[in-house]
Amino acid sequence: MTLLSVNLNKIAVLRNSRGDTEPDITRAAQTCIEAGCGGITVHPRPDQRHVRPDDVRALAAMLRGRVEYNIEGNPFADARGSYPGLIALAREVRPTQVTLVPDSDGQITSDHGFELERDIDTLRPIVAELRHIGCRVSLFVDSGATGFEAAVAIGVQRIEIYTGPYAHAFAEGRVHEELERCADTARRAQHAGLAVNAGHDLSQANLGTFKAAIPGLAEVSIGHALIGEALYEGLSTTVRNYLQILR
Ligand SMILES: CC(=O)[C@@H](O)[C@H](O)COP(=O)(O)O
Ligand SMILES: NCC(=O)COP(=O)(O)O
């Protein structure tokens, strides 16, 4: 069964737009959990454009023992202001999973993964520390990525396939090539001993095709499209729609 982890970044975008407390990210998480999601994802960024450190802490307190908690981010991004850094946050709240994403501060969103052959040595101590504190470690990678054996050797347990190009190809009606790249990436990662997650720009429209092509898909983390669809359908209904697609 593929786990649905709802990314709540966009709840925080809306909340921060007025500098107040609504919509409440913990209430949104509660609604998603009651609808049946298996996890919650947040991606705190140094510029705190959406999820803030206190959101990370508040969610940790309410999620513990209920659903999986996935925190994403760039482990090499410096602490800034009240942002303590991804590893410091992970040490503090000990989430189920940490997904390492090589985003720079200037990016509007995540748009690429690690190049494992190039990055493996710098990732080694980060992965070791996260495993030491009991977090599952996932690396954000592009379709077509290689170097999975080296990732396993340093303690990485999962990859997350960046599905932005897949979603774009799906929208343009030319999905076959990118879908096969993702399927081949998943097969090679699983053969190396990694479990496979996926995320970015997945939606109710494109998720079913993707899931059917990736046997053993462990988790999808979905936020932007899901929260947008929830504005029309309601959050609980939207989460249930995604769960139905994943059955
Ligand atoms: C890694 C990824 O694709 C998403 O998890 C990311 O969290 C999106 O970030 P924004 O919500 O800031 O666009
Ligand atoms: N890792 C992907 C994620 O958490 C959500 O990405 P998106 O659905 O907001 O594009």
UniProtKB/TrEMBL annotation:
UniProt binding sites for 3-amino-2-oxopropyl phosphate: 7, 18, 201, 223-224
Protein's cellular compartments: Cytoplasm
Location, primary (coarse class): cytoplasm
Keywords, alphabetical: Cytoplasm, Pyridoxine biosynthesis, Transferase
Annotated 1-deoxy-D-xylulose 5-phosphate binding sites: 45, 50, 109
Family under the similarity heading: Belongs to the PNP synthase family.
Protein name: Pyridoxine 5'-phosphate synthase
Protein's organism: Dyella halodurans
Organism lineage: Bacteria, Pseudomonadati, Pseudomonadota, Gammaproteobacteria, Lysobacterales
